[in-house]
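Help needed: design a sequence for this.
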């Protein structure tokens, strides 16, 4: 079943049911060995899924849950390999969406919920995106409106002494450092694998190019004959001469909220290429930039 969360829509299955997980992998067309995030109703359930939880992970959970933060922790023994991708860790999160929380409370166990898109494609942030991607392969989708955050949760590895950000998102490195008083370190050799965050990911069908505004205007005039679409920022002063143009506010949170929907809209125009005006390379934009770079990677 499709479910809304505050980040993106997910496909929900019982995280204790090996057959359901198998079907989930086949619907997503995702290679096996990719771990999935287990959604839980609250901090109290942490102990059923994780062991050796460090103090700073508890601090993060108390500070940011329910919210767009996934904690990767040493797994409890009974957690299925299909959930962990065979690793010794499990990803856990309490989503901040009333429908998802109600479902989790009623279900009273963990719900594995990867984003409700086919492998490698853009995550759905509105109910209609789920149907476009997955069609009749899922039975139902709970309608929770448009997702508030719009990009997937920040993933923090808490299986070592210091927190490691495995996937940037709305909750930034600075937020994590401020909450824990610890320095966030870069992923190292011993960090858990995050196979779902490969370079080429989150892709529309059209090619995506991430450009500065001047390069964008140049590209638009030198690619006559090609069907070009563009995603630009409201601060743009120069006119962007693209037939298919979406202009978005230069505010990270609202940019993120509509990012996937905008890329889908531009993709649906049948454009050969989507030119995206690059947001600034500063921490507040890390999550958005990460998704744009992956979308642009071919
Ligand atoms: O915002 C989100 O996190 C959304 C909503 C539905 O909750 N879910 C989501 O799930 O983005 P998915 O499966 O599309 O992406 C999960 C990512 C993958 O890159 C996976 O590799 C990583 O989380 N992951 C999950 N468990 C992990 C673990 N134990 N160790 C390392 N990475 C893990
Ligand atoms: Mg995904």
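Sure. Designed sequence:
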């Amino acid at each position: 079943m499709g479910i809304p969360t505050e980040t993106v829509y997910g496909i929900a299955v019982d995280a204790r049911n090996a057959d359901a997980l198998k079907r989930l992998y086949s619907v997503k067309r995702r290679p096996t060995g990719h771990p999935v995030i287990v959604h839980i109703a609250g901090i109290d359930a942490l102990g059923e899924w994780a062991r050796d939880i460090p103090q700073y992970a508890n601090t993060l959970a108390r500070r940011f849950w329910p919210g767009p933060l996934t904690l990767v922790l040493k797994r409890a023994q009974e957690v299925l390999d299909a959930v962990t991708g065979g690793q010794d860790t499990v990803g856990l999160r309490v989503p901040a969406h009333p429908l998802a929380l109600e479902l989790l409370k009623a279900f009273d166990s963990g719900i594995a919920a990867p984003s409700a898109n086919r492998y490698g494609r853009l995550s759905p942030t509105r109910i209609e995106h789920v149907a476009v991607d997955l069609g009749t392969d899922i039975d139902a989708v709970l309608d929770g409106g448009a997702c508030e955050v719009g990009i997937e949760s920040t993933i923090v590895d808490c299986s070592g002494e210091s927190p490691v950000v495995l996937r940037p998102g709305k909750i930034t490195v600075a937020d994590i450092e401020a909450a824990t008083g610890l320095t966030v370190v870069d992923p190292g050799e011993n960090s858990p694998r995050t196979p779902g965050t490969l370079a080429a990911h989150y892709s529309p069908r059209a090619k995506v190019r991430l450009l500065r505004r001047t390069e964008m205007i140049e590209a638009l005039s030198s690619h006559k004959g090609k069907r070009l679409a563009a995603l630009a920022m409201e601060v743009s002063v120069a006119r962007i001469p693209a037939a298919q143009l979406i202009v978005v506010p230069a505010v990270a949170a609202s940019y993120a909220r509509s990012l996937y929907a905008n890329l889908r809209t531009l993709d649906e125009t049948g454009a050969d290429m989507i030119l995206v005006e690059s947001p600034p390379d500063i921490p507040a934009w890390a999550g958005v930039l990460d998704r744009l770079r992956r979308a642009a990677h071919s």
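The chain has ten helices and 13 strands.
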